[in-house]
Design a protein that fits this description.
Three copies of one chain form a homotrimer.
Chain A: H1 12-24, E1 37-42, H2 48-59, E2 63-68, E3 76-77, E4 90-91, H3 92-102, E5 105-109, H4 117-121, H5 124-133, E6 137-139, H6 147-159, E7 167-172, H7 182-191, E8 197-201, H8 210-213, E9 217-218, H9 222-226, E10 231-235, E11 267-269, H10 282-285, H11 292-313
Parallel strand pairs in A: 1-2, 1-5, 3-4, 5-6, 7-8, 7-10, 8-9, 10-11
Helix pairs in contact in A: 1-6, 1-11, 2-11, 3-5, 6-7, 6-11
């Protein structure tokens, strides 16, 4: 069993419920992971994912071994047939099964290069880890998706769900750096599986891969998109069509209270880390609408629900 | 309950006794920390603090999760209201409560910048962690103080206390780099709470913040200061008045056996790491006067006594 | 009890058997390491050694504390009597006993500088750790030897031993960087203790220190060396006589299937990380002859057998 996308989940609602049950009694399955080892491989920095996944594993009684690849260890080669006379020291075909032989479940974080869309969207790095570790695989954010974040987001929405069918808006916001589309793609594909009205708003040129957004409404007019919203998920991403490029720094897309005049009950979400006063204002981040901390807290139970299911099938 | 200074301790002697009891039976409270997580955040390098605090937590049965901020994770912004369009990636207001939600107790190491005395002595970074994690806080050395070191120093002095009221000398020594005043400030405020004669000796211009040194005698004459000393604590610090500057490299302030002609029974202390043959001579470090290793060993029981008290109040 | 070389092992066959027993029942001694702490100090990168030693310790119920020296901690000075007014921050005489006071067993990885043969072959760094920690010492690869790797290699050979006395060939292969002789030295001294025909093949100028190779046959003709081989251990090393230099990039020394025409049953070994298509071809690495992954897997049981023996003598 792998967890790389919402495609790996048959019944999203049941998984959300399972996570909420674990939140109510985090140590209920503390013996499930006894003598099992979770290996975490970070090819990129991590705070929430690192700590929340460790905590989740610990709640389940697992051992955790983490490796910061390229820093603690050796630079990895991912191209098949490479003549390795350059700077990469070890091939994924050799490194991955070694890690697999020491661990029962493998989690990997591998951001996209944002240079070649084909390479990134092929998920070459993640696929190689999955293929060569030979163990159940847990995505800690891949080139195109961040499923543990999205599951935590779904838990958070479930905890604050209004009595009516909610309107959820994914709102592009400016940023100083070119960021992956992973969180936006992932949130979109999970929203398409919930019973919500899902709207995406961004400047022209920031259209996401339709494979993830499905029947979502794209509303370029930001004000109109926000009207009546119950949840506004603020997030920057770089262009998918003009791959990896920054096409806009439009400061009017920084979410402030003023934007939410037509959505008095809207809750605001962000996966963190957030650039304050660039993506959204302090008043939003620190105000009563903010679900930012709750999302981060729910990362533990998202990871724990998925690890529990994997452990139960080992 | 926080532990950031001797001000957080009502009865210093009782805490020292408690630490010595733990040293005699380190696993006596091994069930106290069961299912509790200690989060350690390092904004600076650490050997003794890192390992001794981990060991202390492990003796109490706690889980430990350590993060090397800026390296494993994201560069943190500490200014309120910052427009985050620069190099910092996450605001302390967002990062700290996330760590707080995963951990029961938070330890942070945050050295001073040594540029602005106001900023450093305001302990802005530490205060932000305390404010925003919402958890009991353990200083692993802040901009101005190093209380776990001082507690370990007090344990070491208690173990070697002569029958008379001892004379303790804090002796400035030269160094190649500008160092914080934290160890010196902290040792001073703890000494002011013990029943000892406390003398500080340094070249003019190295006077410490009087808020920490209280009624200590400042004796500029090094020879006179050392006369009859029972404990000589060697340490470099940069200037407090001419903030962060090196005002002297005076090699006659490097402690050698010759200096201790008038203090035949004197024991020598240093918090480590020490620049040998710059701050003190090899003959001192490796000789029978040296308490350096004992101080380091006692770091475990200092941390364990404090963690035990925090756990008992959780 | 230290483990730095085959010299530390009285009965190699018995140690191999013990490791294989542990492989069949890894948790049989899970209570042996209870309340014992293994300290791992890495002065160099590590993947297999880091994870396999952690896993071995965990199988024995030990706590593990790892330090990446120079990164997590302080740059270490190894010269006695040094006037420490340069870039090193802490002397090994101070750092090592501190680590020793927190841990029951110490493992250290310390690669050679490959500049001074005298310094490297004196094992100055390792000896200082052994001397000053005052704890049982486990080499995680030193300047001249890699005994845990060699023990894992011996386990692997034992698992695939043919009915006849096997021919084992240590085959030098090209590489883009100057590498230590440690794996080659170590493999040689362990092979000299097994009942095997041991042949070493390399271009002229790559002769290893005869102190490790004993009565091994050196056969410069690669084809002749490989004839009838049961095990071919591929490995690069830099010159011992022209110390640390690369004397050959001879591509005909990259092991391919063609080389093994005269050794149809030969198994191929390498300690990893391997430069594919430089040291050996993909067809070898991914083919049925390859024992590379098995060697890596056996690292756990090599470490576990050694740690078990050390724990039993504590």
């Amino acid at each position: 069993m792998n967890f790389t996308s919402v495609q790996d989940v048959q019944d999203v609602a049941a998984l959300i419920d399972e996570a909420i049950e674990l939140k109510n009694d985090p140590l209920a399955f503390r013996h499930l992971g006894r003598d099992k080892t979770l290996g975490l491989v970070f090819l990129n920095p991590s705070l929430r994912t690192r700590l929340s996944t460790q905590k989740a594993a610990s709640n389940l009684g697992m051992n955790v071994m983490a490796v910061n690849a390229d820093r603690d260890s050796w630079a990895i080669e991912f191209q098949d047939g490479a003549i390795m006379n350059g700077t990469t020291v070890e091939h994924i075909r050799d490194a991955a099964p070694v890690i697999g032989s020491y661990c029962d479940i493998i989690g990997v974080r591998c951001f996209p290069g944002l240079v070649s869309r084909e390479a990134d969207y092929d998920e070459h790095v993640m696929k190689q880890f999955i293929r060569w570790t030979g163990r159940p695989f847990l995505s800690l954010e891949s080139a195109t998706l961040h499923p543990l974040q999205s599951l935590a987001d779904c838990i958070t929405i479930a905890e604050h769900r209004p009595p009516h069918r909610p309107k959820v808006v994914l709102a592009w916001a400016p940023h100083v750096k070119a960021l992956p589309q992973a969180v936006a793609n992932s949130f979109s594909e999970w929203m398409c599986r919930l019973d919500v009205e899902f709207v995406i708003s961004h400047p022209p040129g920031y259209e996401l891969d339709p494979g993830y957004t499905g029947n979502a409404t794209v509303e370029y007019n930001y004000e109109k998109a926000l009207e009546g919203a119950d949840f506004v998920y603020v997030k920057n991403w770089s262009s998918y069509s003009d791959y990896g490029q920054i096409l806009s720094h439009d400061p009017s897309r920084m979410l402030t209270e003023k934007h939410l005049a037509g959505a008095p009950g809207a809750k605001v979400m962000h996966c963190l880390p957030v650039r304050r006063n660039v993506e959204l204002s302090d008043e939003i981040a620190d105000g009563p609408r903010s679900l930012l901390q709750l999302q981060a807290e729910n990362r533990v139970f998202a990871a724990q629900a998925v690890l529990k299911r994997i452990l139960q099938k080992l």
